[in-house]
Amino acid sequence: MKFKADEIASVIQKEIEDFRGQIQTAEVGRVIEVGDGIARCTGLSSSMAGEMVEFPGGVRGLAFNLEENSVGVVILGDYLKIKEGDEVKSTGTLLSVPVGDALLGRVVDPLGNPMDGKGPIMSSESRPVEHEAVGVAGRQPVKVPLQTGIKAVDAMTPIGRGQRELIIGDRKTGKTAVAIDTILNQKGTGVKCVYVACGQRSASIAGVVEVLRQHGALDYTIVVASSSADPAPMQYIAPYSGAAMAEHFMYNGEDTLIVYDDLSKQAIAYRQLSLLMRRPPGREAFPGDVFYCHSRLLERAVKLSDELGGGSMTALPIIETLEGEVSAYIPTNVISITDGQIYLEPDLFWKGIRPAINVGISVSRVGGNAQTKAMKKIAGSLRLDLAAFRELEAFAQLGTELDAATQQQLDRGYRMVELLKQPQYQPLHAADQVMVIYAGAKGYFDKVPVPEVQEAERALLEFMKTEHSDVRDKLIEKAELSAEIEDGLKAALTAFIARRASAS
Length: 504
Hints:
The chain is an alpha/beta fold. It is built from 16 helices and 16 strands.
């Protein structure tokens, strides 16, 4: 095949006319110092705070300190690959992570990279890790309950959608267990969950993932994992990455739950970065802005106004205390930001009262607004009754003779404590909780021996499901204890106690 010379000439001429020189500009600097997960760079005079920078080999970093002659960068990845004199480029973009349904059921690192060996994450959307919280006008009061499935929590320290409820206590007192039970209880409710493991042992994170998988909760959960073996920068950004993933669902009008496990380890990672960057230390060597570090994170949890779609993001931050020291720096900071706290006490835990919730110190500032009408009706006096029981119990230990009324109050208190105990990974439906607490508070279990109370509770729930399912179904449907439902419940409880008495 032959080409004509004039045809070739015309094609070349056209290419020359259409040619546009694509000039790409990028700010390039040099690494002058590197080590311990941070780098100091020069030549990045136009960098923004929180901007992503790129090192050789695709390692990314975050502009952290903007100084007169240099930029302090935290390295998000293997800092051992970077050496002094390496080129560093500014990207002009803020740090972002992939978001969307593609992440559900996956375990990812704080940058959104998969860690579960299930292949790449096919997500077309991303969100900046740092995002300003919604203002006052874009919020609405917390009114809709978020059921945890834990009797002691739903009855006395209720959590609403859009609330921030702190879980606080010493190590090994069941803090993660409360959070995991809450995630398990969201099955079938449409609530998407994000579990952020920050500074936990890899074995602990793997255990949590396995529990979620076994109970079918991984289908609606994203796990953001940053283990104790990861560098401090990864532990520092993990909660913000999790919040960005949860926000995606919230701004699409959905309800989400996010667990930060735990923020005391994130604060320690932030302290490490700040000290390496030569920021001035304050109380307990933490930098002065550690409060802002947590407040800008937790303020992102919100119940949006109807104009913004009405979605919600409920936050359950976890804080570890040392020797029950609630007045330490980080615990007091986070207590002041959150809308209440669930305090888990070691003494109660070792006594076998699990969940080991101290009713006196635990509080929900949303209160009854985040409860169903049925729960509100029966749980109103429960907290006061238990507090009175604790005082009486201490008094009775002195060996003083008690009158009949006081003795009865004590006996009922012992049974209520037993009723509020709950095994791990067994959340209860709100209607079942109402029936159990009603039975205990109204004295139906007064004749049941204390060691048999938990067995009697299981038998009662089975009895209600099989023989009086109409009462239970009405309670689920209406979520209130009307006169009709209460009469049906009383009749069912009387029949159950009579059957139990005849069997024994």
